């Protein structure tokens, strides 16, 4: 990823810029729109939304927050990452994130609006890229916990390419990964999609595990809840 980005901007890429782009890609894979640099947000996640703004600004993009008229579950707002040309606001024109998604084929066949993809090269990327990308995906569609002293993270996805790519990327970091499947179901008021859950534990690679956790923008991902809850005296 670093060589491609360096060629794109015609200069050397700092680690901070590389991590920011990898995190935005992971977050887009989870909560991004296939139409481009647009994200669905939970309006109560102020820390995460600010983190997205900061990562975008590192790449010269401006962040615009718009509340949805008809919220979908907890996703109550959209964020748009813009660039400007002669004072005119653009969405996907000369946009570093969108150009990277296309150029590195995080879009299927590198074509905008095509299905999301998790290219194989990620498995051999720099460690900071793999950690940051998985952190972005964890911020979007995951959770972390400590259950009976066992630390773990969970990433959920409805897309088989993301399931396979995230599983292989995590395993390439030496982490333990198991996958469970929940079939699509119809309920009285809504339909639940087919979903895969990746359960990731550190095994003997605690440094890599926390390399992902520490790169998350969402505080509750970093501050893992402990289960079962301790009983308090009445």
From TrEMBL:
Residues 24-175 form the DOD-type homing endonuclease domain. InterPro entries: Homing_endonuc_PI-Sce, Homing_endonucl, INTEIN, Intein_endonuc_central. SUPFAM superfamilies: Homing endonucleases (SSF55608). GO terms for molecular function: DNA binding; endonuclease activity. One of its GO terms (biological process) is intein-mediated protein splicing. It holds the Pfam family Hom_end. This is DOD-type homing endonuclease domain-containing protein.
